[in-house]
Amino acid sequence: MKNFSLRAGRFLTLAFLLVGLGLSSCKKDETTTTVTGNWTAGNSFPGVTRSGAVSFVINGIAYVGTGNDVSSTRLKDFYAFDPAKGSWTQLTPMPATAPARYLAAAFAANNKGYVGTGFDQNGNYLSDFWQFDPATPTVTTTTTNGTTTTTTTTGTWTRIKDFPLTTTGTGRRGAVAGSVGNVGYVGCGFGGNYEKDMYKYDPATNSWTDIGFPGNKRVNASAFTLNNVMYVGFGTNNNTTDTQFWAFDPASTTAPWTQKRSLANISNSTESYDYSGVARTQAAAFAVNNIGFVAVGNNGSNSLSCYQYDPAADTWTLKNPFTGSARSLPVAFGIGNTGYVGLGATGTTAFDDFWKFDPNASQQ
User: Fold this and answer.
1) Has domain 10-358 been given CATH number 3.30.200.20?
2) 20 to 30 A Cα–Cα from 324, which one of 4, 24, 157, 364?
3) What is the pLDDT of residue 271?
4) What DSSP string describes 110-145?
5) Mean pLDDT of 83-109
6) b/e 229-253 (16+ beta carbons within 10 angstroms → b)
7) 147 Cβ partners below 8 Å, 6+ apart?
8) How many CB atoms lie within 10 A of CB 199?
9) What are the phi and psi torsion angles at 151 (to 5°)?
10) Where along the chain do its domains lie?
11) What's the alpha-carbon Rg for the chain, to the nearest Å?
């Protein structure tokens, strides 16, 4: 496994984390709490180590690509992960007309993946968006010295309507993205200024519609979808970690956006719970069985902590910490009963490792 970092003393650090964070719990008024969640090493990513990549899931298969390698080279390759086989397959990369990109946005809708925005090798903010169809292969024919070679790769890329420009006329990086049903959502990010907006993409009409975002400006936020509701939070605004947490219900015609419990200290007559440890930027967020999770990322320094969000109770619960190296800008996704977190970087070290997470098991 390339650049798989297990530094000396990590297990001692994890022990202190469990004692200091886990066993004492975030709930200040409880003396004993059982912390669950089992992290195990999975199959390493076959491409180069990277951070700031994107991922999406279609029919139980995860798709991962783009990002930035250790030499700050933007990437455009893509790979598929099949959890049933535990294996990765290289796919058709983004086409020559699509710039390689870092800190892009991606979502899945209508059995296709969508990737766009980010910034290119020259630091230009991008607004182009591309559709990936995993069911249609790409056939490439090349002729060298009179010999013709035909190559077939999995997936076809098609450019769709560009993402709307910011008010200053630029693309953006570090936008947050998600999907509900057959439509996708992309917003916020940074394009010279911090943004606070949200657009709906409808594949049926190839159109972007401004649906607004009532929260603060932010970049490198996170999102997951639970029970057909998209939750958006975390990220930074002018280098300050944002503690607002929002839910978007597209089925609501009167108040689709609802502010949920802020990720800050709360103390009142009914509870005393420290939510301040949840807030972070450049984090991994995923959903398993309609429960949300956020792990690693940066909350002052790169973190190992993991929290679970229960939408019915609007509460966060501390889970066992991530057992890989602390990191920012990973990718994450949930398939079936398992969450997956991988890639990312800490300092100048980028990773290709992937970790599986069972939310209800004890750490082995």
Assistant:
1) no
2) 24
3) 63
4) TTEEEEE--B-TT-PBP--EEEEETTS-EEEEEEET
5) 97
6) bbbbbbbbbeeebbbbbbbbeeeee
7) none
8) 19
9) -120, 130
10) 10-358
11) 20
